[in-house]
Design brief:
Distance between the termini: 23 Å
Number of strands: 15
CATH architecture of the largest domain: 3-Layer(aba) Sandwich
Bound molecules: pyridoxal-5'-phosphate
Number of helices: 15
Strand order of the largest sheet: 5-12-11-10-9-6-7-8
CATH topology of the largest domain: Aspartate Aminotransferase, domain 2
Helix content: 40-55%
CATH class of the largest domain: Alpha Beta
Length: about 475
């Protein structure tokens, strides 16, 4: 069971005060960070006295906030052993919980048109596999070959033996962090970043070292060089193309610089290419793996084809593949064969899928831009040439406040700090454009109503899990 120290909780909570009474604002914020995964279900919370000292508030405020959370079923207090986040805490039945009409917490598209057809083709092709054992820890040979060909097509010579098929990119990231990180090791990670990459690093008790990325300026390579030199991280996790959530892409020149710097300092770079295909006009760039043989690449069909397929992969050295086989068996014994056959068919339709995604995302982005311009004329719209979302500066609002208020309008969003470490990004909001234009527009209108309620102080107790 994990414990959250008072200092860590204070840093996760960030600037939590609002127009509500302090105890209510604190309770709201604690519920938000539990609901969006920054504090795990089952975790032990700090003692009231310690949290009060860390937040510089009275113990009565924390006691009242904890009492409120107990009332709502969010936490449980056990005599003599402290307060714990209730396992699977959700609004209790009978609460006036509001339905989530728009779930923008996941920046994900529905299945591409070709997915159904590829399932049918794979069903017709599966015959020979059925007479084998079905256990292919590193993946089906046909899929490993198709993935290797994909890299060759992008100018990176790749042998199928360098490919490990996984059950999605998240599985790949978890396998890699388990393999490469020992507790206490440092790991370079973009700020902001994909939240579940932070989770994977914290799960193996890595010490994250931040590498700033912004939509306008991209990666701070001076900072990267100094972090690599001073912290000697064992790995660096980066998204070179249409970074989630900023949408930024590394230039070809910066890819080479970053890979060289990582090599100089003995850091293994993990290039997560899950969002690589979501190009709205930027044009192809060389894979990071082209810059150095030590770069490990993570790929997935989750965004190009469908998240529900759960097929991803790792491209790495043969040596690492061997270590993966040994490390993986404690966790799982391979990715389902049928989905791998579907993935082979999908990779053969790459161009068609890319064109479909481009059209969908372009419409979503247009709807997001025009509805934000109309409803939040003070917000600056960053340039965007691909990806899943806009990473907006939502000042003067606090992102967490907006997210809490949005729940009352049936809109679920992820607050900016979920994408960072230590409560950063409270002035940022990720708005995905992966939904249909009409949904995107309705969601932004709901956000406007939420902001107005927040401004007029009429936000009620939010009761929907984020
Ligand atoms: C950057 C990034 N990596 C990995 C994933 C997870 O992908 P998969 O569904 O293949 O596990 C996502 C999903 O949103 C993502 O945005």
């Amino acid at each position: 069971m994990t414990s959250v120290t008072a200092a860590r909780l204070a840093s996760i909570l960030g600037t939590w005060r609002s127009a509500s009474p302090a105890y209510a604002a604190l309770a709201d914020r604690i519920r938000l960070v539990i609901a969006d995964g920054r504090v795990a279900h089952g975790a032990r919370l700090p003692a009231e006295r310690d949290l009060a000292a860390a937040l510089q508030v009275s113990r009565t405020t924390v006691a009242a906030a904890y009492a409120r959370l107990r009332e709502l079923g969010t936490i449980e207090s056990r005599q003599g052993s402290g307060s714990y986040v209730s396992p699977g805490s959700r609004p209790a039945a009978g609460d006036s919980a509001l339905a989530v009409a728009f779930d923008l917490t996941k920046a994900a598209l529905p299945a591409a048109n070709a997915v159904g057809e590829c399932f049918r083709i794979a069903a017709g092709n599966i015959g020979p596999e059925l007479s084998g054992s079905g256990y292919e820890i590193v993946g089906h040979p046909a899929l490993r070959l198709a993935i290797a060909e994909h890299y060759r097509g992008r100018g990176v010579p790749t042998d199928p033996e360098q490919i490990v098929v996984t059950s999605g990119a998240q599985h790949a990231i978890a396998l890699l962090t388990r393999l490469l990180v020992s507790p206490g090791d440092r790991a370079l990670i973009e700020q902001p970043t994909y939240p579940h990459a932070i989770d994977a690093l914290l799960a193996v008790r890595a010490r994250p070292v931040p590498l700033p990325v912004t939509p306008d300026w991209g990666w701070d390579l001076v900072e990267a060089e100094s972090a690599l030199r001073n912290a000697a991280p064992v790995l660096g996790y980066v998204m070179p193309d249409f970074q989630n959530p900023t949408g930024a892409s590394l230039s070809d020149e910066d890819r080479a610089k970053l890979a060289r710097a990582a090599d100089r300092h003995g850091t293994v770079l993990i290039a997560d290419e899950t969002t690589m295909w979501l190009d709205l006009g930027r044009g192809p760039r060389a894979p990071l793996a082209k810059a150095s043989p030590s770069v490990v690449t993570v790929g997935s069909l989750g965004k190009l084809a469908w998240g529900g397929l759960r097929v991803g992969w790792i491209r790495e050295s043969r040596n690492l593949v061997t270590r993966h086989v040994q490390a993986r068996t404690s966790m799982d014994l391979g990715t389902p064969v049928f989905e791998q056959l579907v993935a082979v068919e999908l990779l053969h339709r790459e161009e068609q899928l890319v064109a479909e995604r481009r059209a969908q995302l372009a419409h979503g982005l247009e709807a997001l831009r025009s509805s934000v311009a109309e409803n939040f004329p003070d917000w600056q719209l960053p340039a965007c040439d691909g990806g899943l979302a806009l990473w907006l500066n939502c000042a003067p609002w606090s992102s967490s406040e907006l997210v809490l208020a949005a729940q009352e309008e049936g809109l679920a969003l992820t607050a900016g700090p979920r994408f960072g470490l230590h409560g950063a990004f409270e002035s940022r909001l990720r708005l995905p454009f992966t939904d249909a234009p009409v949904t995107v527009t309705a969601a932004v209108q709901a956000l406007r109503r939420a902001a107005d309620r927040r401004a007029s102080g009429t936000v009620k107790e939010p009761l929907v899990a984020v």
